[in-house]
Amino acid sequence: MRNWPLFQLRVTTPRLELRIPSLDDLDELADRAAEGVHEPGFMPFTFPWSDAAPAERARGTVQFHFGQWAGWSPEKWSCLFVVVDGGQVVGMQELSGTDYAVTREVATGSWLGRRFQGRGIGTEMRAAVLHLAFDGLGASQATSGAFADNHASYAVSRKLGYRDDGIQLHNRLGKAVETRRLRLSRDGWSTPAGFEIHGLEPCLPLFGAGEDPAG
């Protein structure tokens, strides 16, 4: 699509492909959401979308992507990739930025279908968008965060070199719960072998990164 080059943007790793979803991809991603993304009784998200009924989770997943596409601007964007492993959509990885042309800071968020967890996919898909951020967009900082009891997310951050960046309290289902903030600088990033970015150049102005990333 000539007027929306993001549909050509992909990041590939030795195992995974991250791409802006087609409508068929969104349908499959919605199926993953309906199947479940965490165990009952545990809530890893600030907004508890995953507690909805399966059909509502599926519709909400599609609507959320449509909303992010419609609201995209260089000043505030959220790039939502589907994560594909072996030809199957297994989850979603987000890379977002606000006033990126000035801050050169990105944030990440993700979820993975429950039956695909525990295979190292979460680490590899986060590393993929960090490769895009640092090596493609010229980011200087990447941030993440997770509830203190979300040990899997925290382990991924630690494995990729993030450092603790303080705590914050959030309302989770009516209770104040501590969130750990984490931060990774460009100096602390080393690109893994076999990671590649495809179709980025025409997208750079949409990210507010039209200038030379090294500048």
Automatic annotation (TrEMBL):
List the SUPFAM superfamilies: Acyl-CoA N-acyltransferases (Nat)
Limits of the N-acetyltransferase domain: 16-183
Tell me the Pfam families matching this sequence. Acetyltransf_3
For this entry, the protein name equals RimJ/RimL family protein N-acetyltransferase
